[in-house]
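Order emerges. For instance:

***
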Amino acid sequence: MANKQLKQEAKLAIAEAKRQGKVVAVDGTITGAVDPTKPYYRALNTLDINLLPTKYNVNLVVDNVGALQPGRPWT
């Protein structure tokens, strides 16, 4: 990845896809549709990167103090 921000966003996109029941290949390719019948499906399955307590702006760390909310970063 070109920078830490892109790496963080890619990792969270993969986590969101898995939580929604989609298929994630070894190379990170995401396929499939949301599958609510799988045991790992959760009602809160949409990611909001702005709810992370610490995130990256390119390669700089940005502390997001107001993001300490229950269930973060899942909305």
